[in-house]
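look at this fold:
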Amino acid sequence: MRAFSVPIAQTIIHPGQMADVIVDELRRLQILLPSPSILEAVLRRARQQAEQLTYEVLTNGLLPDTLQGLDDLLARRPGQVATWLSWMRNAPQSPAARNILRLIERLAYIRALGLDRARADMIPALTFDRLADEGSRITPQHLGELNALRRHATLAATGIRLEESLTDATLTMFDKLLGSMARRAENRTRDKALKTVRELQGHLRTLTGSCRLLIDARSKGVDSLAQIEALDWQHFAVAVEQAEVLGRPETVDRTAELIERHRTVKLFVGAFLNAFEFRGAGAVQGLLSALAIIAELYRTGKRRLPDRVPLRFVPPAWRPFVLRDGIVDRAAYELCALSQLRERLRAGDIWVAGSRQFRDFDSYLIPPATFAALREKGPLPLAIETDFERHIEERRTRLDTAIEQVTVLARQGELPQVKLDENGLIISPLKAATPPATEIARRAAYDRLPRVKITDLLLEVDAWTGFSECFIHRRSGREADDRNALLTVILADGINLGLTRMAETCRGASLRQLAHLHDWHISEAAYGEALGRLIDAHRAMPLAALWGDGTTSSSDGQQFHAGGRGAAIGDINARSGNEPGVAFYTHVSDRYDPFASRVIAATAGEAPYVLDGLLYHQTGLTIEEHYTDTGGASDHVFGLMPFFGYRFAPRLRDIKERRLHLLPGQESGPLLAGMTAEPIALGHVAAHWDELLRFATSIRTGTVTASAMLRRLSAYPRQNGLALALRELGRLERSIFMLDWLRDIDLRRRTQAGLNKGEARNALARALFFNQLGELRDRRFENQTYRASGLNLLVAAIILWNTRYLEMALADIGTADEIARHIAPLGWEHISLTGDYSWNVEDQPDPDALRPLRAVNSLLAA
C-alpha cells in the first residue's frame, strides 16, 4: 500500500481525496480495506515520505556555497530592514526604465545561486508549484525556523520560480514601457500636427490664393506669369517653406517623436539585452544579429555602429529614419530593433531562455511523437471529423444548402426581418419578446423576498452547498478552522473592500488573521471548485430550467478602472477612456450561471479568451452554443470552435461589411455576389491540417490554454502557415454562420437573449464591487484574479439565493411559467451590502428550511 500511496501523496494534498484514491486502488487490487486508524497512519506516513523525497530531489548535489546562498536569502540586506528574499518578492511593477534595471538587478542576484531548472522537472509539477508557492508565502523568519533539508528545498523551489517570474516580469515591463512610449509619441505627434495646422492657417491661405490665381488664369487663357508677378513674393516664399514643414515625415509620423525618446531607452537597453538569451527561427536571425550588435555597443562603450549592420528586419515605415543619407542612425536603429523585438516576442517568433511566458511556440504543444501515438491509438479528443477530405465535404454541403436557402428566401421576400437584394443587405432590429405582465410580476415577487444582510446570505448559501469546504489549506489540505473568518476574506474580495478595511469593519476579525487565511486558504483553484458547487446546486432548481436548458452561454468583458497610473500605465484601452484598468471577462450560461471569470488586460482583445471559459470551468455545464459581441469574434476563434464541439454565434456589429468566403468551385449566385470575396485557400489548409489537429489536441488536453495560443497566433505575421490556415478555416465557418444568421431569426433571438443575460449579470457585479469607487487598486495580477473570482462567487451566491426564494415567491403569487421565465434572479434591492459585516450563525434557518416571505400590505387596506 505504501508503494502506490507515496506518488498519490505527492500530487493530492486533501486527506479525504487521498483516502478515496487509495481505497479505490485497494478495491481494484481486491485487497482487504484497513481500519480507519491504520489508513490514517498510512496517509500520514505517505505524506512524510513524499515530502522527504521531494526535498531530497531538490537539494541533492547542491554545493555548500549554493546552500549558504540559499540561507543568505533570509538575511537582511546591508543597511536595510528587508531580507534578500523579501526584496526579490516585492519587485517593482510600474513600467519605467529604472524599474527594468531594478528587476534585472534582482534577476542577477538569484541567477548567481546557480539553481538548475532541471531539478524542478524531476518531481511532479503540482508538487513543485505547491512548494514554490509555499516559499513565496512563508515569512523569512518562519523559513529560518524550518529544519535544514526542508528549508533548503523550499528556498530552492522558490529561487527557481523567482528566476522565471523575474524574467517574465522584466520582459513584460519592457513590453509595457515601449507600448506606453509609442502611445505618448503618437499623442504628441497628433498634438504637434494640430498646432502646426493652426499656426499655418494664414500661410495656407496665401498659398491657396496663389494657386487659385494660376488656376483662374489657365481657365481664362490669361498669361499665368503676369498673374504671378502680382503676388507678394516674400509672403509666398514663407508660405511654401511652412507648407514644406507640414509635409515632413517628422511632423505627422509618430516614429520621429518616438526616436526623440531614445534617451529613455539608453538607460536600460544595454543591461536588458545583455541579461537575456534571445532565440528564434531563421526569419528573425537578422533582428537577433542586430540586437547582439546593440548589446555589444553598450557592453564595450562604443558609440558608433559597425559599417555593416543587418537591415532586412527594418520595416518600410522605419527606413527613412534609420537610413539618413545612406548612413544608419543609431538611435533610430535601436528603437526600430527594440520595437521589432517587442512584436516578435508577442508573436512567439523570438523566445527567451528561462522564461515561462515567452517560450518557443512549439514547446507549448504536445510533442510530435506523443501526438502521433495518440492518433494511432484511437480517435483524437476532438469533436470534428479528423479526415480532411470528409470534413471539407461536409462543410461544402452545409455551405451549398445555406446559399440555396438564403437565395430562395430572399427572392421570395421571406427572410425573417431581413431584406437582401441587389442593392444590399438590411437587417431589422429584433422586437422585444417580453410579455407586458412581466414587470408587474417581477416587482411583486421581489417585494416578497426576505430582506437579508449579505453576510447572512453567504452563511445560508454555505449551509446549502458547503462551498467554504473548498478553501483548504495550501499545505495541509485541511479546511479553515474559522468558517466565519474565511467567509469574511471571500467577502472582502467580492465587494472590493480589501483586508485592511474589512478588519476595521468586521467585529472579531483581526487583519493578521484575515491575511493568514487569505495567504493559505484562498487560491484560484479553490474559487473555481466553490463556484462549481454553487452553479451545480443552481442548475438543479426547477425555476432555473425555465430560463434555459443549460447548453448555451455568452461571454463579455467588464471594464474596471485601476484607480491611478503607475503600474497600470501600460494598460490603457482607448475604447474605455484614458484611465488605466483591466477587464473581468465572464462567461454566463442561459440559466444566469456565471461559470467562469478571469482578469485580462484592458489593452487585450477579448477573442482569445472566449474558449478558456468554455474549456476550463469546474461545473457540470455542457455548453453547445456560445454568444459574444463583436469584440469576442475573430476568424481564429471561428476556426477553432468546431474542434471542441461548440457552435459560435457572435452578434457582429459590422456583418453587412463582412464578406463570404466560399470553397473553390462554389458559386454564390448573383444575389450574394456583392457579399462574396476571394475563395478559401483550401490547399494551404490541407497542407497544415495535421498541425491544426495537433494544435487543437494540445488545447483540448490542457497542455496549453486556448488564450495563450490564440494571442500568439494573432500576433504572428500574415505569412505564418498555421495562423493563416486557421484564419482560412475560420473564414469558412464564419461564412456558414453569416448565412445561418440571415435565415434563422431564432438564432438571432438566442444570441440577443444570451448577451442580455450577461449584461444584466454585469450590472449586479458593478453594484457589488462598489468599494474604493469601484476601482481596482491592487497592482498584483494574483490579487486582481482573487478580486474577480471573489466577485463572481458572490454573484453566483446571490443568484442561487434569489432563485430559491423566487421559486417560493412566484408560486405564492401564482405566476405562470411563461411569465416566470422572463424574471431574472439578479435583483439586489433586498440585500444589505453595507454596514458592519457580522456573522450571526445563531439567527440562520435550518439547512432544510427557508426564511418566511415578506407580507405585502395593500395601500388600500383599512
Summary: Confidence is low (pLDDT under 50) at residues 565-570, 858-862. The CA atoms of residues 8 and 21 lie 8 Å apart. The first strand starts at residue 278 and ends at 280.
